[in-house]
Structures
1.
Amino acid sequence: MSARVYLDHNATSPLRPQARAAMLDALETLGNPSSVHAEGRAAKALLEDARAAIAQAIGAERRGVVFLSGATEAANLALTPALRREDDEAPIDVLLIGAGEHHCVLQGRRFAPDAGETLPLTCEGVISLAALEEALARRSGDRVMLALQAVNNETGVIQPVAEAAALIHAANGVLVCDAVQSVGRLKTTFATTGADIMFFSSHKLGGPMGVGALAFRDESLHLEAPVLRGGGQEFGRRAGTENVPGIAGFAAALTAATADLAGEASRLADLRDALERRVLKVAPDARFYGSRAPRAPNASAFSIPGLAPRVMLMALDLENVALSAGSACSSGKMMESHVLAAMGAAEKEALRASLGWSSTQEDVEEFGKVLARVVDRMRSRHSAA
């Protein structure tokens, strides 16, 4: 049996050796970081070192970084009308959401159903800034929050977050940025995005599962309605004893991921382009989604006319190649893509290949060979039917 080819880093990335080492070291530390004795102080030191490292990587203040279980919890915590600046007299009135956002944003918001508005995407999967301007003009008397991905999880399309932030701030609004697919792959800081709040996940960049961060630009924003209560941890924003080994691994993974962002982005873009060339060699009529828009260097979403993506996915898996068909956060189900629908695509599904720190040229070459066999076999069956 040949080695598996893993091309699903947007779903989860293999644990980096640096993260593994940091976690093993942290597991040797006994203590609850809320305890005042020596053991507790040792755990607290590990926690705060990790917090400082993550804050530095994204250009945040240390106290602005809140640890929690992942991006889904972060979205549920951040997307609330009970978010105020120091001089605000009223909560946020309305939430604007891009049509291609992750399900944790589309479903995790804590706003009333009639307090939300969805903004359309272009045919290349980019949020319409014209629609954003129009929505802000209609709601000139409201306090507005915009939830926007830095990078789409299905297509890899880079969203104009900084431009959207300028529009939102001109309207005295708040921008919450889902940076899950951006942090550790592109330079993603509060300065580059203009966001007021960002959230991201450990396991997408080679850290452990079950850990994430919600980061605030500064301390002027106050979260008045925590989801988890029962303790003063994480500056009163998220109760519960912190997962110190997981957080240590998270920080180590992010430090490794950002050590040479430009060099790694160039390497991944070369691999992504090589992968797409192999798809076109096998299927010259293949369609790539969002390919004419700016994209993250590691991801490609495509379909081959006449071949069902979910059938291709299973056939590739049986030949030791792991891809996905859109978002992985659907309890193992393969569902029609709301992102493709928002782009106006005729297709309802696509294959997603996503590369990462462990991806190699050999992976791409093996993928091309397996894809050729799978496509030939599927087309032969269609011809015989």
2.
Amino acid sequence: MPYKESERVAQAAYDSQDAGAFYSQIWGGDDIHLGMYASPDEPIAEASHRTMQHMIDKITQGSVDYVVDLGSGYCGAARFLHRELDADVLAVNLSGEQNVRARQLNQRDGLDEPITVVDASYNEVPAEDAVADLVWSQDAFLHAIDRKQPLAEAARVLKPGGEFLFTDPMAADGVNPAELSGVLARLNLSSLASPGDYKQLAAEVGFEVVEFEDLNEYLPLHYGRVLEETQANAEELLKTASQQYLDGMMKGLQHWVDAGNRGLLSWGIFHLRKQG
């Protein structure tokens, strides 16, 4: 099925050579999600790993056999989830370039059997109803125009009682979108959801909100670390990424840092359970 315009925009944000160089070199290589930092100068990869560990510690089920990861990037989370839970993982991701790298990394680690990477949208997950014990997503839904759709798909593929853990960079509740123009421009976004939006949408599609853990303080810290690493590694990045791309990226990252420090943005972990 052809991708929607918002999906093509998201695909373009990650599929270019510039983006490949930036995300693979600066964000740690395995993961491209936000980190929880023990110190302001901690390596991004270590902080990103801490986020996953913190999320997985919230699981209450005794065993998890099948996981669906929505917006799986380089499959860093998929590999982590397989190792921690001994579960098979369906990794759903729009970016063909990311998926090529993800499959290579899975093969490197001997995990190409338990992890299946599919070129697909989280708006139309290629999975049957009620097959997953756990649905997982990190910092991916900001690209959705209709954010109810990926939540509805998560509810559809989960077994009754199954859990959904996700993070997403958000607008703080009550913030005027006009205040976020620089933030939105970085990834060609039209809006950001708020924590209140997601709580309402979750209830509408049949989830119980077990918890939303507010981790706002890490958002400006993370984007600040990414900006620092980009500046420090600019010479190396310019071997594969353009000056125009890096200039735009650094300007965009500064908008995220500033908005985060002003309290205009939100980030945290949603823990939802499918009712029934």
